[in-house]
Design goal:
By secondary structure, the protein is α/β, with parallel strands linked by helices. The chain is about 30% helix and about 25% strand. It has a five-stranded parallel β-sheet with strand order 2-1-3-4-5, sandwiched between helices. Helix 2 packs parallel to helix 3. It is globular and about 35 Å long.
């Protein structure tokens, strides 16, 4: 299985990629929304791990554009936003709130 990780936090990617690979997943990584959307349109991924707040294009905007283009890949949306009104829409399959240092 091949996963696309769209995450701009390099430290988080450094942790996630080895975990995904150890679990047997191939993993492509990018840190900007427009590049993530381009990769998603060009390659057949089995799943996407998508950050909510990305440079160049918000994660929800990216997800909505992918869905409009017919992409139905399962998506795990990562976010540090914790307000109810920030809950994801746009076609995410799963939603994981990241811990934030307070």
């Amino acid at each position: 299985m091949r996963i696309l990780l769209i995450e701009d936090d390099a430290a988080l990617c450094t942790v996630l990629v080895p975990v995904l690979e150890k679990a047997g997943f191939g993993c492509d990584v990018c840190g900007r929304g427009p590049e993530g959307l381009a990769l998603l349109r060009q390659n057949p991924y089995d799943a996407v791990v998508l950050d909510r707040m990305l440079p160049g294009m918000d994660g929800l905007e990216l997800l909505r554009a992918a869905r409009r283009a017919g992409c139905s890949v399962p998506v795990l949306l990562l976010t540090a936003l914790s307000r109810v009104e920030d809950a994801p829409g746009g076609g995410a399959v799963f939603y994981l709130e990241l811990p934030v240092d307070r």
